[in-house]
């Protein structure tokens, strides 16, 4: 009984140190449930970056108890993440988790992302859907993601099992080291590039991705994948 109480107290303490950063654009249909799911598991420091949505995303997020930061123009998910990460560091976060607003991610995966950082085994943990059999990745999506793995290895020198998963965690130290300049979806490749360049200790962690009809409709197209690749090549050439 005492051991269970101690574990519960440690879990609560760890959650108080964690800030969840959630970029959102026109997510009024999902943001409330996403935030309620996180609060159910004890996460209170919830930051939603409203990237100039045209719907009620900001209002729904506030109603669900999140701190809402508003972009006055739509800049992109990468810029929204930077806004949220910078704010979390300013507010004293020890660990920052990035989490999608469309309901694809499972709050139950967060403790596994936190554990290597809390134990000093990594400064960044990267979620991988290919390390967990419960992620039923659609065929076309699987092909594009596998191509991204090869491309990332060629560009960044890091071989991962999943390169464009928005569920990740980082220590305060790692957050301060990352220099994110890609405003839109290329930020995911940029983060991996920064990990390699700055030799930030990292670890992949198995996570579940839930492919609902809503999440699939909001997801990236194949053309976006080519756009990301082009931007990363340009970034390499001009560095």
Word description of this protein:
The chain has a seven-stranded mixed beta sheet with strand order 3-2-1-4-6-5-7, sandwiched between helices. It is of the alpha/beta class and 239 residues long. The protein is built from ten helices and seven strands. It has helices at 2-16, 31-40, 57-63, 77-90, 110-118, 139-156, 172-177, 187-197, 213-218, 222-238, and strands at 18-24, 45-50, 67-70, 95-98, 124-128, 168-171, 202-206. Helix 6 packs parallel to helix 10 (222-238).
Topology summary:
Blueprint: H1 2-16, E1 18-24, H2 31-40, E2 45-50, H3 57-63, E3 67-70, H4 77-90, E4 95-98, H5 110-118, E5 124-128, H6 139-156, E6 168-171, H7 172-177, H8 187-197, E7 202-206, H9 213-218, H10 222-238
Parallel strand pairs: 1-2, 1-4, 2-3, 5-7
Antiparallel strand pairs: 4-6, 5-6
Structure, briefly:
With 239 residues, the chain is an alpha/beta fold. The protein has helices at residues 2-16, 31-40, 57-63, 77-90, 110-118, 139-156, 172-177, 187-197, 213-218, 222-238; strands spanning 18-24, 45-50, 67-70, 95-98, 124-128, 168-171, 202-206.
Helix amount, in percent?
40-55%
How confident is the prediction overall: mean pLDDT?
Answer: 83
Counting helices, strands and paired strands, the structural category is alpha/beta
**What is the CATH superfamily?**
Spore Coat Polysaccharide Biosynthesis Protein SpsA, Chain A
Shape: globular
CATH topology name, in short, is: Spore Coat Polysaccharide Biosynthesis Protein SpsA, Chain A
| Beta-strand residue fraction | 5-15%
Radius of gyration: 17 Å
Q: Structurally, how many domains make up the residues?
A: 1
**First and last CA, distance:** 57 Å
- Which blocks of ≥5 consecutive residues have pLDDT under 50? 1-9
- Assign the CATH architecture: Alpha-Beta Complex
């Amino acid at each position: 009984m005492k051991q269970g109480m101690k574990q519960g107290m440690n879990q609560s303490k760890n959650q108080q140190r964690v800030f969840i950063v959630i970029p959102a654009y026109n997510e009024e249909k999902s943001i409330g449930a996403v935030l309620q799911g996180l609060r159910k598991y004890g996460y209170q420091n919830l930051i939603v970056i409203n990237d100039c949505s045209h719907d009620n995303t900001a209002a729904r997020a506030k109603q669900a108890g999140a701190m809402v930061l508003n972009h006055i123009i739509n800049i992109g998910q990468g810029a929204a993440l930077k806004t949220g990460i910078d704010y979390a560091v300013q507010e004293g976060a020890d660990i920052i988790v990035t989490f999608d607003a469309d309901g694809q991610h499972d709050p139950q995966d967060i403790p596994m992302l936190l554990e290597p950082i809390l134990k000093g085994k990594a400064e960044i943990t990267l979620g991988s859907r290919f390390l967990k059999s419960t992620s039923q990745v659609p065929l076309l999506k699987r092909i594009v993601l596998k191509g991204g793995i090869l491309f990332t290895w060629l560009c960044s020198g890091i071989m991962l099992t999943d390169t464009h998963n928005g569920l990740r965690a980082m220590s305060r130290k790692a957050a301060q080291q990352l220099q994110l300049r890609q405003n839109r979806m290329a930020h995911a490749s940029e983060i991996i590039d920064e990990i390699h360049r700055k030799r930030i200790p990292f670890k992949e962690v198995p996570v579940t991705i839930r492919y609902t009809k809503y999440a699939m409709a909001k997801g990236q197209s194949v053309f976006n994948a080519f756009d990301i690749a082009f931007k990363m090549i340009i970034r390499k050439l001009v560095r």
